[in-house]
Amino acid sequence: AQKVTQAQTEISVVEKEDVTLDCVYETRDTTYYLFWYKQPPSGELVFLIRRNSFDEQNEISGRYSWNFQKSTSSFNFTITASQVVDSAVYFCALRGTTDSWGKLQFGAGTQVVVTP
Amino acid sequence: EAQVTQNPRYLITVTGKKLTVTCSQNMNHEYMSWYRQDPGLGLRQIYYSMNVEVTDKGDVPEGYKVSRKEKRNFPLILESPSPNQTSLYFCASRSGGRANTGELFFGEGSRLTVL
Questions:
Q1: CA distances from A71 to A26, A113, B4, B21, B103 (A)
Q2: What gap in Å lies between CA A24 and CA A69, rounded to an integer?
């Protein structure tokens, strides 16, 4: 069975602070995919990144960066110099390759609140 | 514009009154899926469909039905809604078969309240 744990329910920061969202996953698959989605207050799900299990390179996209550590089964997400527009719920998700057709297993989500 | 469209976006109904949430995608995707989102639980898969006339249960299928008569449409049916089905529902689609690793495209969500 697959599992994604986002232990932080809510994180509150002041604008310009950095914020790191933790994601720990469990899977028996040797090949799998990890995702991050953003859900702003308007409710839609916005795809942020997909990472393959065989590619442990960290990635940076603007103020966003992701740290994938296979040894600790973690895929953490950092927002640098946070802005009010970053206020949202962020979901980490896992897709295995041996069980049902590409189901995304989501974590419970982390609410990020950025105040001016 | 490539999109997944759900209707209605918001609905308040009463216990036992059958309802259908429609989902349509214009990307010719083979795979479609329904998720529900509840506080503290993230999103959980209800049903999915690999192609026309091929559907299967996800993690929380009780109380729901689906059909896939056309490639573009994947309606979610609540035959006798109950208050525990009050939730935010998302339809999603992607191309390809089981091995496809492409991202899921999500609809905008349908917020359902059952009184």
A1: 12, 30, 37, 42, 25
A2: 10
**A97, A102, A108 member nearest B41 (Cβ):** A108
- Which one of A46, A100, A111 would you mutate to disrupt binding with B, by most B Cβ within 10 Å of its Cβ? A100
Write the pLDDT tens digit of every residue in A58-109. Answer: 888 899 999 999 999 999 999 999 999 999 999 999 998 876 567 889 999 9
Give the integer Cα–Cα distance in Å for B106 and B94: 9
Q: Is B109 in contact with A43 (CB distance < 8 Å)?
A: yes
Helix, strand, coil percentages, rounded to 5, for chain A = 5, 50, 45
Cα of B79 vs its chain's centroid, Å: 14
Q: Does A44 touch chain B (CB under 8 A)?
A: yes
Q: Which two tokens stand for residue B10?
A: 């918001």
